[in-house]
Amino acid sequence: MENSESKTIKSWDLRLYVAGQTPKSIVALANLRKICDEHLHDEYHIEVIDLVRNPQLARRDQILAIPTLVRSLPSPIKKIIGDLSNTEKVLLGLDVRPRS
Amino acid sequence: MHAKLKAPKRNHEQTLPKTPTGIRGLDEITFGGLPRGRPTLVCGGAGCGKTMLSTEFLARGALQYNEPGVFMAFEETAEELAKNVASLGFDLDDLVKREKLVIDYVHLERSEIEETGEYDLEGLFLRLGYAIDSIGAKRVVLDTLEAIFSSFNNVLILRAELRRLFRWLKDKGVTAIVTAERGDGSLTRHGLEEYISDCVILLDHRVINQLSTRRMRIVKYRGSVHGTNEYPFLIDSEGISVLPITSVRLHHDVSDQRISSGVARLDTMLGGKGYYRGSSVLVSGTAGTGKSSLCAHFVDAACRRRERSLYVASEESPHQIMRNMRSIGIDLRPGVKKGLLSFHAIRPSFYSLEMHLAVLHKLINAFKPQVVVIDPITNFINEGNQIEVKAMLTRLIDLLKLNQITAMFTSLTSGANGTLEQTNIGISSLMDTWLLVRDIENINGERHRGLCVLKSRGMAHSNQIRELSLTSNGVELLDAYLGSGGFLTGTAQQMLPDRAKPASY
Questions:
Q1: Is residue B237 within 8 angstroms of chain A, CB to CB?
Q2: If one looks up domain B258-500 in CATH, what number appears?
Q3: B73 in contact with chain A, both atoms CB, cutoff 8 A
Q4: I want to staple A44 with a disulfide (CB 3.0 to 4.6 A). Which of A40, B107, B211, B329 is the partner?
């Protein structure tokens, strides 16, 4: 299941919303890179958006919580909030792994 | 008691800055508005007017006080919001275009959010901060902030972040309204009242006897005196009106000026000059004794003085009243045509008492009459219990007196059990002048109407009973004979020898 899924999908478009260089943001980004490297191989693109610098972007993806990871592609849109410390949950949230 | 407790705080109270809401009545019961630079909690059940109140707060702030505002909507989209308040005459789109208002719709889809690990609500802060800074907002509304409780799992984080949010709002110096749903046994479902302690306003929408009334109460207002009652409020084409504001004080100017009752001999009975301007007159009596005719005379006299009168009819239609009064020689049509006389006909069962009061309040403010007639007041009395009725009448009379309006009320009493001098709820104590009209049967088997002045505060008045006769020239008051045979009217009086007839005065 997971193989067929990841094969049909060419790329993962991910956006990580942070607010400055806070410990939570740094941890979240590190966790995300690790998960992507291990599970999405080279088929992903991460954009880090700092809302302190670009607060107007919070409206676009309806961001309240920081950090928030948004999967804009493949659709539908998915959001994971928190420091992404639970890898299993992140994989579930991104639909990399099917829900049981 | 309340005033005494607050008295030592007087100095502080003067320094507590307030932001006027511009909402009619609300600024009066809060003595100036909401606490400036602080958040206010507005709570209440579904459909009680929370969103209306907060939207009007922003719209009036932008239009009347040049204070731009940010509306953060957690429930309604900007389009829905604009549509909802368009009926109140506010053009939100225009305000947005003129950079007087930012509407930020926060949409949280629970199903597309997964939580893992630590997070905070910095995104909300940045988003709100950006909106505030983009137009230099002085006012902020968060409607309904509690919606975030259903979008996030970690209540501990949420509570800590809310505490931070309210502190942050204070630091920003914006005057904010935070709305919340009412919970079971508590003011709000998620206990927001723990965080916002400066000012809490509770809205309520109640249905009693199939009649609905909206009410507002200021639960607390730290560092300020405020009206503690439940105040009814209206939402109509001009927005919210909190009413009545008049019950807050009892300091009206009194006038020494006298105005004619429209019946010359009635003026004579009232110390020769008629009613005091700004007084309340009660005309009570059994059916068909000429109460409405006395009202018509009074209104007619006001029209002749070129004063404005409001005639509130709860039994007859305006046309019926005018037709009937023409039969006794009083033509009210010219007054209506000139805009001096305005009729307001309404069935009492149409609204609750509070609503009637609210409607009258609005009518009076709009029409600015010098004379108001309510014919009959008894119908309204039947709409509520004694306490409510008395409270409503007191406030109505306060309102009228405050505006120096001379008011005439008619009251229908049943003559069956000989309790003529009893009004249903002791409203007579609220009245300055009380005229009683009654049927009198004479020994020749005729019925006549008798009129007497039961009381008239502040003037020497006649203590005699006069015969009230309805002629084609209106009401005429005739002398009644008071002799050894008792009270004689009509033919019984004419049968007396001339010298026995009473001297009139």
A1: no
A2: 3.40.50.300
A3: no
A4: A40
